[in-house]
Design a protein that fits this description.
The complex is a heterodimer of chains A (151) and B (409). By secondary structure, chain A is an alpha+beta fold. Chain A has helices at 3-6, 9-16, 61-74, 79-93, 103-106, 119-138; strands spanning 29-34, 41-46, 54-58. In chain A, a hairpin with a 7-residue loop joins strand 2 and strand 3 (54-58). The chains are: A alpha+beta (151), B alpha/beta (409). Chain A: This is Iron-sulfur cluster assembly scaffold protein NifU.
Chain lengths: 151, 409
């Protein structure tokens, strides 16, 4: 079934057993993002050294699993490394299923390749990543200019 | 004539489609309805044979187009038992109709701080935001009815909520989320007592049940063509003529004027006063054809069919483990729109799995966020029915929900 491309085991695992969920102190930047069309929401907090990435939110399996994967993938990395991963993830999500993901860069996030074939769900996967970028900026760290997210 | 769903379905070409390898099961008519051949054909014929601009041309095509446009207005007027076709203002949709009332009736009432407008928590955003904007412009106060646990308007504070400060009351006739059909008799009577105007959002009621504007005893109703077998881009405001006649225009431009000089303008009588610019002509004609189609079947019969389907669906959904229905649990006082939660699964995931099986439902907040908040959820899954819905389709929904539980179990 077509759905298998969307609901990969990795995604369902992260959804059912999220990593790093919950808002924690200390932090330097916080951002709350909402998906206005479906009402999904997420809050992301980061200290400026990214020694923690904490989050809490309400939403579908794709947005919540994406937050969990992002937490695992980006925690403790440098701003430069994060910028590279962030850019690769956004590129994958906007690739309409045509981008071959690099597992060395994206880890579990390669499971989201299938999501990019469902245009209505791309914004679900990107929601935590955009909130993260905003939180980082508010913590005074630039993690690179991602291309504008198309709805 | 018996209500023959198979024969009706044969009029809707899209119902022959397959989605993801499964027969289409269209359960999203509260969002937009499908259109029968008769409507598509009427619009095609107009564009191929009779296209001209309305209300301004002396030539044959312009005259034919004007006649057809005005015939559509008369059909819509008769459909809701309006006093005269001049009480029918064509708009873009219900949203524009409600904004028109908020602007023009709001200005006519000369609202000021201390005045109150009353709505409810059950409203679509289109019957919330225009009133919030009006309150911002005028300093009036917005107040609202709550919702009871079983999904009905909470009228316990009626006498206090609608009082001598209330100038305008705007409520939904049938909820787009809960399916509740509101019995508004007490609220209308109380509004009359205090001299407040009453507007009804009939977007979900006019397509599905007999609506008689004179019987309702209100001042304005709004509804939209695309939810009643017609095309998008055409909506309706009905207003009592003597009120429309006192109201200032909403949009200015061509067609709405009596005379224009560089120093000033006088305005046409309703409905032209509220129809600035070239209107959606083919769309109005399509809506007229939709009204013909519904009349042929009979609105009482359409409503009865949907009551039967709704009873069947409420029972089928109650039998799916982990499903919780929002709104009235029995078909009494509700229409064929059923929102529900599947325990532990987000509505977007429910909708995605159902779509893979060809079952098209709406998920999200349904442009009624306060209603979702009232029931403690960020979003709901909604199945909504129409004259072409079958019990087989309800069975397909129930089977789909079993699949949802397998994927996320």
């Amino acid at each position: 079934m077509m759905l298998d491309a969307l609901y990969q085991e990795i995604i369902l695992d992260h959804y059912k057993h999220p990593h790093g969920r919950g808002l924690r102190d200390p932090y330097d930047g916080e951002a709350h993002h909402v998906n206005p069309t479906c009402g999904d929401e997420i809050t992301v907090r980061v200290p400026s050294d990214f020694s923690d990435i904490s989050y809490d939110g309400l939403g579908c399996s794709i947005s919540q699993a994406s937050a969990s994967v992002m937490h695992e993938l980006l925690i403790g990395k440098s701003a430069g490394e994060i910028a590279g991963i962030h850019e690769a993830f956004v590129e994958l999500m906007q690739g309409r299923g045509q981008v071959e993901p690099d597992e060395d860069v994206l880890g579990d996030a390669i499971a989201f390749a299938g999501v990019s074939k469902f245009p209505a769900r791309v914004k679900c996967a990107l929601l935590p990543w955009m909130a993260f970028k905003d939180a980082a900026a508010r913590a005074g760290v630039d993690v690179g200019a991602s291309p504008e997210v198309k709805a | 004539m018996t209500f023959d769903v198979a024969r009706i379905r044969a009029d809707f070409p899209i119902l022959q489609r397959e989605i993801n390898g499964h027969p289409l099961v269209y359960l999203d008519s509260a969002n937009t309805s499908q259109k029968p051949r008769q409507v598509l054909e009427a619009m095609r014929l107009h564009n191929e044979r009779h296209n001209g601009n309305v209300s301004r041309s002396v030539h044959t095509l312009g005259t034919e187009a004007t006649t057809a446009y005005e015939e559509a207005r008369a059909k819509v007027a008769a459909f809701i038992n309006a006093g005269t076709p001049d009480e029918i203002v064509f708009t873009k949709n219900s949203t524009e109709a409600l904004n028109l009332v908020a602007h023009s009736a709001g200005q006519y009432l000369a609202l000021k701080p201390g005045d109150e407008i009353v709505i409810s928590e059950m409203e679509h955003h289109s019957n919330i935001v225009p009133w919030q904007l009006l309150c911002e412009r005028t300093g009036a106060t917005l107040r609202w009815f709550g919702i009871t646990d079983d999904g009905r308007l909470d009228e316990s504070s009626l006498a206090e909520l609608i009082n001598e400060r209330t100038r305008l009351v705007s409520l939904v006739h049938m909820s787009n989320t809960l399916g509740t059909i509101n019995d508004l008799s007490r609220i209308v009577a109380r509004s009359r007592e205090v001299g407040a105007l009453v507007t009804l959002d009939c977007s979900q009621s006019v397509p599905h049940l007999p609506v008689d504007v004179r019987g309702l005893g209100v001042d304005f109703i709004a509804f939209t063509g695309h939810k009643m077998l017609g095309p998008t881009g055409i909506g309706v405001l009905w207003g009592r003529f003597e009120l429309l006649a006192k109201m200032p225009p909403f949009l200015g431009g061509g067609s709405m004027i009596e005379t224009v000089t560089m120093a000033g303008t006088t305005y046409a009588a309703p409905p032209a006063r509220f129809e600035a610019g070239t209107p959606p002509i083919a769309e109005a004609i399509g809506l007229g054809a939709a009204v013909d189609y519904l009349n042929e079947l009979g609105m009482a019969e359409v409503h009865q069919h949907e009551q039967d389907i709704t009873a069947y669906a409420l029972k089928a959904l109650a039998d799916v483990p982990g499903v919780r229905i929002f709104g009235p649990a029995t078909p009494e006082g509700r229409g064929g729109t059923v929102s529900f939660a599947v325990d532990g699964v987000h509505p977007h995931d429910v909708g995605q799995v159902l779509d893979a099986l060809g079952v098209e439902v709406r998920v999200g907040h349904h442009c009624a966020k306060p209603t979702c908040v009232r029931f403690g959820v960020p979003a709901m899954t909604r199945a909504s029915f129409y004259l072409y819905t079958t019990t087989d389709e309800i069975d397909a929904l129930a089977r789909g929900l079993d699949q949802v539980r397998k994927v996320f179990g």
